[in-house]
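Annotated sample (chain length 175).
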Amino acid sequence: MILGTTMDSNPVINIVFFMLSLMTIIVAFGVIRSTNIFRAALFLMCSFITIAGLLILLNAEFLAAIQIILNIGAVSVLILFSILLSKNVEKGNPSNQFKYQFLSLVVIIPIILIACISFIHTWIPDTTNSTTTIYPSSIVEMARTMLQRYVLPFEIASILLLSAMIGALSLIRKR
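Output written by the structure step:
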């Protein structure tokens, strides 16, 4: 992405951005407010899809592909399998009686205000004429970094996810 550019260059991209942002917020509230855990997991998958769309709009196609492959293809499917393999899926879950609604509003309102202020500042035209890129070949740099520097954390995360799945299956297995 080129530094110093604003979003007002193409009105169609702005409309798509606002639609994806609104959809992301709506499905995120669906995840929080859904009393059915299966529907909450489906809302979470929709949230991952809309975030991938936002990444595509930010010219981060590689990160969008990683988002789709890892979060939708692996994590969400793992969550859905765990839900379907657990007991009492047909009965549903009891209603969520969240006790700390005021505290959550105290935390969420400043975050929304900061997001609005930063959004307003993106519409102010940049007077500097900076057109340098962050990384000229970001995909090559990311691949090199992941395969050289962060191999061990990825392997540890994969072993952790595998052990969590084996533990979940052993807990729900009928004896």
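Annotation: Residues 1-87+99-132 form a domain with the Four Helix Bundle (Hemerythrin (Met), subunit A) fold (CATH 1.20.120.1200).
Annotation: Residues 64 and 129 are 28 Å apart (CA to CA).
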